[in-house]
């Protein structure tokens, strides 16, 4: 199975009043397991001229916002160095979905008409990330997410003691992975893959 692990960073929890800051996406093929560093990866940052949101989320993403400012004010060579060092690419809001779409095309996803149908993995993707992504220009034109989302939390729930599904950090701890959550879109997307690999490729 080929799936895409997707995570986003936002300026808050409300998709109607807050913004997407970055999109991280990592492609996994369960028939061709590769080292994480070799997996096809998309890390796009929306270069917003105005940002609004919740103080907690803005503070948590202050390094990302600082990089955005540096890119907006930097010269071409400075922008090139920033993208090379961080792996991030910076896009206008109207451009990022088409760039993500092209990334999928380049990595073997075939459209039906012009729409690509994706099997997606993500922690809370269906109830959080997707609501933000669907508000981006051209998302619904180019991308369809299949109904069944691969959420790793169901693999790590303690049915006797948990009162709700565990968060990403708890899942990592129970999988014997470092429990720190990076709150970086790509790193969090990779964590989801590592958690799922414990199920379908435990010896990796």
List the helices and strands and how they pair.
Blueprint: E1 2-10, E2 20-29, E3 41-46, H1 55-60, H2 62-73, H3 76-86, E4 89-91, H4 96-106, E5 116-118, E6 120-121, H5 125-133, H6 139-142, E7 143-145, H7 168-174, H8 185-200
Shape: globular
Based on secondary structure, the structural category is alpha/beta
Q: Could you give the order of strands across the largest sheet?
A: 4-3-2-1-6
- As for the number of domains, it is 1
CATH topology: Nucleotidyltransferase, domain 5
What is the terminal-to-terminal distance?
17 Å
Number of helices: 8
CATH class: Alpha Beta
**Percentage of residues in helical conformation:** 25-40%
- Contiguous runs where pLDDT drops below 50 for at least 5 residues: none
Q: Mean of residue pLDDT?
A: 96
Keywords:
alpha/beta, 7 strands, two-stranded parallel ribbon, 18% strand, 204 residues, Nucleotidyltransferase, domain 5
Structural description of this entry:
By secondary structure, the chain is an alpha/beta fold. The protein has one domain (2-149): 2-Layer Sandwich (Nucleotidyltransferase, domain 5), CATH 3.30.420. It is 37% helix and 18% strand. A five-stranded mixed beta sheet has the order 4-3-2-1-6, sandwiched between helices. Strands 5-7 form a two-stranded parallel sheet. The radius of gyration is 17 Å and the shape is globular. It starts with a strand and ends with a helix. The model has no long low-confidence stretch (mean pLDDT 96).
């Amino acid at each position: 199975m080929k799936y895409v692990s997707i995570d986003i960073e936002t300026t808050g929890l409300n998709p109607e009043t807050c913004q997407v800051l970055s999109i991280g996406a990592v492609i996994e093929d369960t028939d061709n397991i590769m080292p994480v560093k070799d997996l096809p990866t998309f890390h796009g940052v929306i270069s917003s001229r105005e940002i609004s949101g919740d103080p907690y989320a803005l503070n948590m993403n202050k390094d990302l916002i600082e990089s955005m400012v540096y890119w907006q004010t930097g010269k071409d060579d400075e922008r090139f160095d920033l993208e090379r060092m961080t792996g991030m690419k910076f896009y206008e809001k109207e451009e990022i979905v088409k760039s993500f779409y092209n990334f999928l095309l380049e990595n073997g996803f075939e459209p039906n008409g012009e729409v690509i149908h994706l099997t997606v993995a993500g922690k809370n993707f269906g109830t959080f990330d997707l609501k933000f992504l669907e508000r981006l220009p051209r998302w619904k034109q180019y991308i369809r997410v299949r109904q069944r989302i691969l959420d790793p939390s169901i693999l790590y729930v303690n049915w006797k003691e948990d009162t709700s599904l565990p968060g990403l950090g708890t899942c990592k701890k129970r999988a014997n992975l470092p429990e720190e959550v990076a709150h970086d879109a790509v790193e969090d997307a990779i964590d989801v893959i590592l958690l799922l690999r414990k199920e379908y490729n435990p010896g990796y």
